[in-house]
Amino acid sequence: MTEPEPPAPARVARGRRTLIDLAPLRESPAFARMWAGNAVSAVGAQLTVVAVGLQVYDLTSSTFAVSLVGLSALVPTVVAGLYGGVLADVLDRRLLLLAAAIVAWLSTASIAALAWAGRETVLSLYVLTALNATAATVIGATRNAVVPRLLPMRLLPAAAALEGLVFGLAVTVGPALAGVVVAAAGFAPAYTVDAVLFVGAFLGIVSLPAVRPEGEVTRAGLRSLLDGVRFLGTAPNVRASFAADIAAMVLGQPRVLFPAAGAVVLGGGAVTVGVLTAAGAVGAMLSGLLSGRFTGIRRQGVAIARAVQVYGGAVAVFGGVLAITALTRSGPAAGSVTSVTGAHLPAITAAAVVLAVAGAADNVSVIFRQAVLQSAVPDVMRGRLQGIFMVVVTGGPRVGDLYAGALATAVALWFPPLLGGLVIVGVLAALLRWQPTFRHYDARHPEP
Questions:
Q1: Is the pTM of this model over 0.85?
Q2: Torsion over CA: 221, 145, 95, 209 (sign)
Q3: Which CATH class name applies to 22-439?
C-alpha cells in the first residue's frame, strides 16, 4: 500500500528546505550587494585563470610550465594572506577591500594590454598572475571576515552555501567562456572580458557600510600576526579543518593536468580544458542549489571529513579514466591545446562526471569549513584567521599544481590524481580518529 501524498503546503516546505536558503540575501541588503558583485567578477577571474594556463601551455608545450603559474604566486599569496589578515583586524575592512580590488583590476588590465600589443611573455604572465593572486587573497580574507558582521550566526552556513554557488557559477561559465573565446578570438579578448566584469566587484564593495574591527585593536605588525598564530594553536577544530583542506588541495588538485589531457590524451584541446574545468563547478553549483537541507547539520567536523573523502575518491577515479584512455585509445589526440580535433567523447564524458562529483563534495566541505571558521573565531581574531585560511586555500592548490606537474612529468599524466585521491581518503579517516573534538564538533555550541 503506497503512502498518501503529503498536502501541497508540506510539499512546498520540503522543497524549500531542500533548495538553497536565500535568507542571507533577504535579511542583509549589504551582504546581497557584495554577493552579487562578487558573482559577476568571479566569472571573469576564472576565465583569466584558464586563459593564462592555456597561453602558457601554448607558448611552452609544458605541463610543468603551467604548474609554475601557480607556484610563482605561492610566496606572495602567503605573505598577502598573513599580513592582509592582520590589516583586516586593524583597518576598516571596507576600505581594505577597495584597495585590494584596485590592485587586482590593474593586474588583469595589464595582462590584457600586453596581449593586445603582442608583448606577452611567460615571465609577464607569471608576474602579473602572482600580483592578481596576491590581491585576490587579501580580498577573500577580508570579505570572509566581513560576512559575520552582516549576518547572524545561524545564517553563516547558508551564506557559505551562497558563496559556493558563486564559485560553481564562476567556474562553470568562466572556463567554458575561456575555451570558446580563446579558440574563436584569441587570448587578448578573453582577458578583456575579465577586466570589464571586474567592475561588479567594485559596486559590491563601495556599497558596504564601514566595517571596523570590534574589541581591542592591536597595531599591524609581527606581534599581531603571532597572536593569531598562537590563537590557532589553541583551536584544534579550526586546525583540523585546515588540515582537511590542505590534504585535498595538495594531493588532489588535477587542474594543471587539463591542458595536456586535452592536447594528448582526451583530445579536444581548449574546449576539453573548458569542459573539465567547468565540470567540477557544475557539481559545486548543483550541491549549492540543493544545500537547503544539509546546511542545518550540527556535526560539521564529520561533514567536512566525509565530503573530503568523497572528493579524494572522485579524483582517484579521474586518474583512472586518464590511465584507461591513454592505454586504449587508437586514434591520435588533438596534439595542440588550440586544436579541437581528436576528441574522445566517452572518456571526456566520464572524466567530466567524476569531476562534477569532486566539485560537489569540495563545495560541501567548503560550506562547513567556512561556517566553523566564522562562528567559532571571535571578531578580534577573525581577520588573522581568515588570512591564514586564505593562505591554505590559495597556497595549497599551488603546491598541488607543482606536485601534479612534477609527478605527471616524471611518471604519467594519470598517476598524480590516482595516487593523491587514494591518499586523501586515508588521511581524512586518520584525522577523524585522532582528533575527537573535531569528530564531535557541534554547530550549536561552536568551539575553535
A1: no
A2: negative
A3: mainly alpha
